[in-house]
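quick one before i forget lol
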Amino acid sequence: MKICFATNNAKKIEEVKAALGSDFEIVSLQQIGCHEELPETGDTLEHNAFQKARFVKDHYGVDCFADDTGLEVAALDGAPGVYSGRFAGEPRSDERNISLLLEKMAGKAERTARFRTVIALILDGQEISFEGIAEGEILAQKVGHGGFGYDPIFRPTGFDKTFAELSLAEKNDISHRGKAVNALISFLRHRKF
């Protein structure tokens, strides 16, 4: 089955392709001729994910899925949440986002946080969403060089490594996106064609 993953983030595509295996052919926005920035103006992860998926379906006629992910930090009342990607403003920068988060977390004893991903799927006229959550904590400094986004400062519960230190396979097994993708895969494999 061929389906478009509505993202311009090459690392996300790599993670999802690794999780999906060879049963599905994931095509990128570039491969369908979409070069514009997808709209992302919602105030919830769900809204943003469906906004992006509907844009691709409406403008390119392609079945697709889109995701939105937020890092929800308890000590910051759930921030940066839906604004995780643009926490430090435009242009988007992982480094600036991490620096701002660490600045806001300075001196805070409460370090619990969670990553939450929502995947919005539009397939054969149906709209379905899937969610994945990874619980963990925010470290006081960056550790590791892998992954992207807030991975170097997020240590998942039960692990002594950050997401940035885990291999792609290890991360996919426990990550928010991995869990949401697994729910998506399960749905796709069990639906009636």
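fyi The first helix runs from residue 10 to 20.
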